[in-house]
């Protein structure tokens, strides 16, 4: 888990604007915001007709990928908050760009509340998630790591459609 935290922090350092690296909770928020901005901007930029694009039969469509990120955000952030998942099953139930981007934004908004409410004292509190004990920060760090991992997929899908992803726009 230490390697995941270090990798996520390093990625956040490179991408974040207006960083808050003075606290553990501020670092987590900074990284999540950078990842969130790249994912949402790219999901918005991808034309609706490409949401069904699937490079091979072995991988998700672009739309399923967006739904998967939304599902994971809801799952991990609700776990860190000790709450029920607010919107499970997005990847399996939504197919249109409008529905998927709305669900993605709602999932990131939900996570924003969890991250913004996190203090350094709460970050090290031990919780149970998927039958494993861990601190809240590790779960939220994994959430950002997971979203950024799939942002890499988004970049590839966009490049295959000759589109420039958010992190490459300047």
What does this structure look like?
There is one protein chain. The protein is mainly α. The protein has a single domain, classed as Up-down Bundle (Four Helix Bundle (Hemerythrin (Met), subunit A)). 65% of the residues lie in helices and 5% in strands. It has 7 helices and 2 strands. It has helices at residues 2-15, 24-45, 62-81, 90-93, 97-117, 120-123, 136-160; strands at residues 126-129, 132-135. The chain has a two-stranded antiparallel ribbon. Strand 1 (126-129) and strand 2 form a beta hairpin. The longest helix is centred in the last third of the chain and has 25 residues, at 136-160. The chain starts with a helix and ends in a 10-residue tail after the last helix.
């Amino acid at each position: 888990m230490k390697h995941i935290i270090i990798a996520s922090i390093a990625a956040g350092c490179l991408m974040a604007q207006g960083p808050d690296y003075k606290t553990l909770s501020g670092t987590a928020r900074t990284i999540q915001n950078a990842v969130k901005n790249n994912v949402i901007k790219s999901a918005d930029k991808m034309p609706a007709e490409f949401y069904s694009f699937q490079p091979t039969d072995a991988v998700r469509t672009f739309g399923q990928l967006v739904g998967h990120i939304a599902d994971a955000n809801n799952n991990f952030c609700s776990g860190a908050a000790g709450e029920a998942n607010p919107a499970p099953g997005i990847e399996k139930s939504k197919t249109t760009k409008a529905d998927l981007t709305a669900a993605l934004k709602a999932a990131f908004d939900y996570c924003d509340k969890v991250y913004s409410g996190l203090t350094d004292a709460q970050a090290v509190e031990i919780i149970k998630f998927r039958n494993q004990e861990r601190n809240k920060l590790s779960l939220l760090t994994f959430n950002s790591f997971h979203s950024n991992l799939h942002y890499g997929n988004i970049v590839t899908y966009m490049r295959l459609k000759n589109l420039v992803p958010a992190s490459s726009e300047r």
